């Protein structure tokens, strides 16, 4: 396996939701871990070969904020009845399709199943994230243009 192929594999794993990958053949053994005490990538071969130079896989850090850019609804309902819309993938969260267009969803907006609430860019592809529930958006938990993890909460919705 060439160094470029190994780097492509590591980049692919970094973009996926996998935490650990082991690949073993008769000539080659690759083990990549994303999480733990420190990100690691190791390569061993039955033939003596120079170690390839590549950067270890680093986990994408989730950025959240305590003070949203927009004011929250003043009579915020108890969090026990709120539904969370979570990220279905790793990528970069965008509230609108471009900087010039309005946000897909704002605090106080009513949403229905199938309504686009945000876009997540992953590997140069922009994926529209649609609501699967009906309700009113109470809180936006992620800043625009920040990285998000798989299953990271994005919106809090009060069901109607």
Automatic annotation (TrEMBL):
GO terms for cellular component: acetyl-CoA carboxylase complex. InterPro entries: AcCoA_biotinCC (IPR001249), Biotin_Carboxyl_Carrier/Decarb (IPR050709), Biotin_lipoyl (IPR000089), Single_hybrid_motif (IPR011053). Residues 82-158 form the Lipoyl-binding domain. Pathway: Lipid metabolism; fatty acid biosynthesis. One of its GO terms (biological process) is fatty acid biosynthetic process. Pfam families: Biotin_lipoyl. The keyword Ribosomal protein does not apply. GO terms for molecular function: acetyl-CoA carboxylase activity. Residues 41-79 are annotated as: Disordered. This protein is a component of the acetyl coenzyme A carboxylase complex; first, biotin carboxylase catalyzes the carboxylation of the carrier protein and then the transcarboxylase transfers the carboxyl group to form malonyl-CoA. This is Biotin carboxyl carrier protein of acetyl-CoA carboxylase. The lineage of its organism: Bacteria, Pseudomonadati, Bacteroidota, Cytophagia, Cytophagales.
């Amino acid at each position: 396996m060439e160094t470029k192929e190994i780097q492509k594999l590591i980049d692919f794993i970094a973009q996926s939701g996998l935490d650990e990958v082991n690949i073993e053949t008769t000539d080659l053994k690759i083990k990549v871990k994303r999480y733990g005490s420190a990100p690691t990538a190791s390569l061993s071969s039955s033939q003596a070969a120079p170690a390839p130079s590549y950067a270890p896989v680093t986990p994408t850090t989730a950025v959240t904020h305590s003070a949203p850019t927009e004011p929250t609804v003043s009579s915020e309902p108890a969090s026990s009845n709120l539904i969370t819309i979570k990220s279905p993938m790793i990528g970069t969260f965008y509230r609108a399709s471009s900087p010039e267009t309005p946000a897909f969803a704002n605090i106080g907006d009513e949403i229905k199943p199938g309504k686009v609430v945000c876009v997540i860019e992953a590997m140069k592809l922009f994926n529209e994230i649609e609501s699967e529930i009906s309700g009113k958006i109470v809180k936006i938990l992620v800043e625009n243009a920040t990285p998000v993890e798989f299953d990271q909460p994005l919106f809090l919705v009060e069901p109607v």
